[in-house]
Amino acid sequence: MGTVETKEEVTFKLNGIDVTVPKGTTVMAAAKREKVAIPHFCWHPGLSVAGVCRFCMVKVKGRPKLEISCNLEATPGMEVDTVSDEVKDSHKWALEFHLANHPLDCPICDQAGECGLQKYYMSVGKYNSQMTEEKVLKPKALDVGDKLVLDTERCILCSRCVRFENEVTKTGGLGIFDRGDRAIIGTYGDEKITHNYQENLVDICPVGAFTSKEFRFKQRVWFLKEKSSICPGCSTGCAVSIHAKPEMETYFRVKPRYDKKVNGHWMCDKGREILSGLDKKERLENSYLQDQDEFSTCERPDMINHLNSLLSRFRGKKISLLVSAQYTNEEYERLFSFFVEKMGVRSIFQWRSKEEKLNDFDGILLRGDRNPNTRGLLDALRKFHILKEVENEFEACLTSSSDLIFAFSPLLSSSFSSFEEDLARLSKLKSCVCLFTTSYQARDYIGFNSLIPLVSFPEKTGHYTNYKGEKRELEGAYPSFIHEGFDVCELVNELDSNIKASLRA
Ligand code: SF4
Ligand code: SF4
Ligand code: FES
Questions:
Q1: Containing domain of residue 379, as a range?
Q2: Ligand nearest to the CA of 44
Q3: Residue pLDDT, tens place only, 300-354
Q4: Do 355 and 230 belong to one domain?
Q5: CA 473/CA 470 separation, integer angstroms
């Protein structure tokens, strides 16, 4: 924290340069905004100020002692120095004391490459250490939560995690026990942390004390690419970054991306599961086609030809769309402009999870609507004069006596408890073209007319509309790992141009 919503402003000097900030802003927050680096451990913009690490010292002209900048309000005319030898010397010594009991774990520590201690050692380190005392040993690799491992020896007692538990989840699950060099971070007794926001503790811990069970030892972070995306795990639409190793065609982890209006600094643990099933080895890689009792793979052009001949064959018959709320606004627009406007399809069914509790909200971020774009789907349907309320119409679709169904599956099967069962039932219909991302053994769905692999959310551009009506942008973070995968808009464009050509002929 450290910035305030006010119209009143103050101007002060930061390293000799005038800086104007809202009244109430701390020197630390102002420096951050101005991209002036002040070393810090305990300060975090999403938490209250603790002032415990004593790392963020600055000099205020006219005052006798150095002061911590995270708890220092900028006042008019104040002159702050962050770069003098006296200030730099204080940073060196603060770091030296933080390292006093920190183990030399870097080669086996998951935080290596994104560790505050490593980073600051390079920029403000006191390379001729004068510490000769034995390090105090503390318990390592403790199982403290469903998703967390805690190494108390690595902890620098910054208290970020304690404040997160008190202020964000309000679960109060962590405390600092004992005093002096025996002070230790931990849960109360044998209690474990079980809430849905555990991995934020890993994100905010500036050292490798909290590590993620899911990500531990999977990959060195410097090998990962990091790209912006939006979490499709529920209708909140949190801003996230996706860390992947494209050369291995593997996604590794999701982290929250700061978005003041939607998710601030946080995301939930359910949202960290959105990559499940998206690595190349888990995906449906090819199109499959039913032809004279053979269910076999086919190339993209053959699939397009097949869909075109299906559309011609079923022209004038009952064609239906079964659509989940996990596609982008652009995909809905393209789908409905082709199927509704051009092909005259009026029979559109929503495909939703059986166990959905639409109005649930956990009071922090997670919503019961586990689709990213319910609102976008309803808006698009309305635009094409098909008025719907949110409803699971899967059963209605099954009994609709449709001659041909195009089923646009949920792309995130992890939040769709009935997905496999639904797929199996669909595959028993007479003529169903099923489009999806994750791989369920194609042979299990041999009854489909055809199976089409789609690119998934990190691999496409477009927008979701979240529950509040805000547009959330997918930036096409990675090229698709599935070379035969179809983008819905491209697929429909091809069908559309072929229909035009056949009408001209
Ligand atoms: S575990 Fe990490 S976040 Fe918690 S007090 Fe220790 S260093 Fe800080
Ligand atoms: S609250 Fe919803 S959108 Fe945000 S991270 Fe969790 S599942 Fe994803
Ligand atoms: S960041 Fe200011 S005292 Fe820790």
A1: 280-504
A2: 3
A3: 999 999 999 999 999 899 999 999 999 999 999 999 999 999 999 999 999 999 8
A4: no
A5: 10
Indicate whether 227 belongs to any domain: yes
Rounded to the nearest whole angstrom, what is the distance from the C-alpha of residue 161 to the centroid of ligand 1?
6
426 found inside a domain: yes
Give 234 Cα–ligand 2 centroid separation in angstroms.
5
Is residue 224 located within the same domain as residue 339?
no
Q: Atom of ligand 2 at shortest distance to CA of 272?
A: 5
pLDDT 10s digits, 27-46: 999 999 999 999 999 999 99
Nearest CA residue ID for atom 1, ligand 2: 366
Q: Per residue in 41-53, pLDDT tens?
A: 999 999 999 999 9
pTM over 0.85, yes/no:
yes
Share of the chain above pLDDT 90, in %: 84
Q: Which of 255, 273, 291 is the last residue of a domain?
A: 273
Statement to judge: residues 51 and 66 lie in one domain: yes
In sequence order, what DSSP letters do the residues of 282-342 get, joined into one string? GB--SEEEEETTEEEEE-HHHHHHHHHHHHHHTTTS-EEEEEES-S-HHHHHHHHIIIIII
Q: What domain count does the chain have?
A: 3
- State the amino acid at position 167 in one-letter form: E
